[in-house]
Amino acid sequence: MQQRLDRVELADGTTVAYASAGAGRPLVYVMGWLTHLERGWELPAERALYEALARGCRLVRYDRAGCGLSAVVDRPASLEFELEQLAAIAAVLDEPFDLMGTSMGAPVAVAWAAARPATVRRLVLYGGWAHGADLSPPGVREHVLGLIASHWGLGSEVLTDIFAPDADRSTRAELARYQRESSSAATARELLTLSYELDVRDRLDHVRAPTLVVHRTGDRAAPLSQAEVLAAGIPRAELVRLPGRSHLPYAGDRDELVRVVRRFLGLGAPRHRTGGLTARQREVAELVSQGCTNREIAARLGITERSAEGHVERIRLRLGLRSRTQLAAWWTAQVG
Fold it and tell me: Where is the HTH luxR-type domain (predicted)?
């Protein structure tokens, strides 16, 4: 699956980059704090999430102003500015759509669905909140914001540990770099400040679309209690609690999250691909089935250990497998 990149322009001249993947009825995905359409598509775990969601529909994502491929702007971050950007994406579609908001995107999606109910078929909220001030104590918030402003490198690492505690060390390092490549420290601080300031509690009972609220019980960035506030305030909302600590939707048990979301949207269970590996990936899969470590695979194929690790991860995600053991079993079944 490939993504298609394009841009829209707001009334004030602000340009916002967006990406489409898949085909069918639209699913607009309002992403969290910092994003980069190209970098996110290059990360195997994140891309696997988007490809799984996009099967049977048209997934539309966008970089908010100041992030990723979207232009840096002088306008301060605000909920109103967030809604203007979402409105520009909606205008491109020119039809009702399913709407999914993750993390900071969840209260933005709530505000949109409450104000423009005719545009939203179904609403999904993952890892979100209704009242940003309740995410953490004031002292913690000020510490994190100060760290971003004074040392963006260290700040991105601390936040990655909060967002994806279940990820391995190399993945966390990659996610920290991803954040720094997505925006400047000033923009990151401003958007995180907005996250703490967002308050959509008075808009919840105006949402009319069927709504699914999904949250991991041990989420370290957004407490489960905020998901409960969302579900209690939105008429007839369904709340699904998933195990796990990671805030990022593509970290932890991504497959279960995708299954729950696709079921609610009426898209059916995602089909795992069982082929389409490159020649190099088939070589790597065979060596994994022989019990080789990444270092041994690298030595056998004349590549770096990091390249070997990347091949294994991409194969596993492409096939929808959770472990090297499952990959070894899959390869044995193919050649047996």
Answer: 270-335
- The H or E element containing residue 27 is strand 26-30
Residue 149 dihedral angles phi and psi, to the nearest 5°: -70, -35
Q: pLDDT by residue for the chain (336 residues), tens digit each?
A: 889 999 999 999 999 999 999 999 999 999 998 999 999 998 888 888 999 999 999 999 999 999 999 988 989 999 999 999 999 999 999 899 999 999 999 999 999 999 999 999 999 999 999 999 999 999 999 999 999 999 998 888 888 888 888 777 777 788 888 889 999 999 999 999 999 999 999 999 999 999 999 999 999 899 999 999 999 999 999 999 999 999 999 888 888 999 999 999 999 776 554 456 787 888 898 899 888 999 999 988 889 988 899 889 888 887 877 788 888 877 866 654
Tell me the pTM.
0.81
Tokens 């096939």 belong to which residue?
319
Pairing status of strand 15-22 against strand 58-62: antiparallel
